[in-house]
Specification:
This protein is an alpha/beta fold. It has 5 helices and 7 strands. It has one domain: 3-Layer(aba) Sandwich (Rossmann fold).
Length: 175
């Protein structure tokens, strides 16, 4: 496993932060099948992108679980998945309120994103890569047959949490 630490100014648009963009570019390949359930202002040209905010330039604007279930139903098998959900219940609340939705009790339980992670296992080809972003390095996890191949810690200074970027390889998607 490769592990690095760097410093960069924070930005709510994770993929615009220079070392994070460089991290993504190590794994992103043009014309590969990429799925992004929380795309936001993702600048990559993706067919299978989703964001609740209808102002975002994504193919879908539905709940992340419903989006991933739809990808499952369409038998999408991805080469790469971006997993950049809100990092905390406060961020979930801000995202919802920012588009005129109200956070429900069930939404406060989503900080582990277990439902999304369980579906992702079926969407990623064996040997595929998932790039997870957040405040922890849990990623998708060994119990789902993923192996961490790289961790990048991006320090944003003392007043901000680091962004932790995790690249994991799906070494066997059989359950």
């Amino acid at each position: 496993m490769v592990m690095n630490r760097t410093w960069a100014m924070p930005n709510k648009n994770t993929f615009t932060i220079k070392p994070i963009k460089e991290f993504i570019d190590r794994y992103y390949r043009q014309n590969s099948i990429v799925v992004d359930p929380f795309a936001g202002q993702n600048q990559y040209d993706l067919i299978f992108s989703n964001d609740l905010n209808t102002k975002m330039n994504t193919a879908y604007h539905i709940d992340s679980v419903n989006f991933l279930k739809l990808m499952q139903k369409k038998h999408i098998i991805a080469d790469l998945i971006f997993f950049d959900p809100p990092y905390s219940t406060r961020q979930i609340k801000e995202c919802y309120e920012g588009i005129g939705l109200h956070m429900r009790i069930n939404d406060t339980l989503r900080s582990s994103w277990k439902s999304e992670k369980d579906i992702i296992v079926d969407l990623l080809k064996t040997g595929g890569i998932i790039l997870s972003f957040g405040w922890n390095s849990a990623g998708i996890g060994k119990n789902r047959n993923f192996e961490i191949i790289e961790i990048l810690l991006v320090c944003h200074g003392g007043g901000h949490y680091d962004t932790i970027c995790v690249a994991e390889k799906n070494y066997d998607n059989r359950k």
